[in-house]
Design brief:
Largest sheet: 7 strands, mixed
Distance between the termini: 40 Å
Structural class: alpha/beta
Number of strands: 7
Number of helices: 6
Radius of gyration: 15 Å
Order of helices and strands: HEHEHEHEHEEEH
């Protein structure tokens, strides 16, 4: 694993010692950030839920994010995220070692331009996480939620205020969710 672009470009990131955490591959990460770029994503504040190694939030910091918040309930993942942040000499970040649902409530009302959601595929909790983001008003008006999930797990959004753009990358789907322009005007 490495940082693909930006000020930390080429820096190696430490990987998990075991297979409990499934890091986003460099290929999928590059595709994700290329799509974010094409959508004109802003990188002011980033939320990395289920951060694992912290690779997604670190990539965003490398590309100019002003702040990043990393959430993971696994203590080893939190340590790994911290190690990777120190390795690239990142600044302006927070790390929380707690369940996503608790973290979302603690962050209520803070606005994020990019929210990464990458839970373990087998949990199939993406709809619950999206509802928590909505209930706690975490997405900025111009923000994008990026959900990385299994192709077997079809994401559905029933709220007409949002649009979803899905990209298939092998067995992984990248779902980009944002407000419809007319919903915020």
């Amino acid at each position: 694993m490495r940082v693909i672009s930006g000020k930390f470009r080429g820096k190696r990131l430490y990987s998990p010692a075991d297979n409990r955490v499934r890091p986003t591959t460099d290929r999928i990460k590059e595709t994700m950030f290329n799509i974010l770029f094409s959508k004109g994503a802003q990188y002011n504040s980033v939320l990395d839920l289920f951060s694992g190694s912290g690779a997604l939030g670190i990539e965003a910091l490398s590309r100019g994010a002003k702040t990043a918040v990393f959430i993971d309930k696994d203590a080893d993942s939190v340590k790994l995220t911290g190690l990777n942040l120190r390795n690239v000499q990142a600044v302006n970040y927070e790390i929380f070692n707690t369940d996503y649902s608790i973290a979302l409530k603690k962050l209520k009302g803070r606005k994020f331009e990019i929210i990464f959601v990458d839970p373990p595929y087998k949990l199939k909790i993406e709809p619950l996480v999206l509802q928590g983001i909505k209930d706690n008003e975490l997405l900025s008006e111009d923000g994008i939620i990026v959900v990385e999930h299994s192709a077997e797990n079809k994401l559905q959004i029933d709220d007409k205020r949002y649009i979803i753009d899905e990209r298939l990358c092998g067995n992984t789907v990248l779902s980009f969710i944002c407000y419809r322009r007319e919903a915020i005007e």
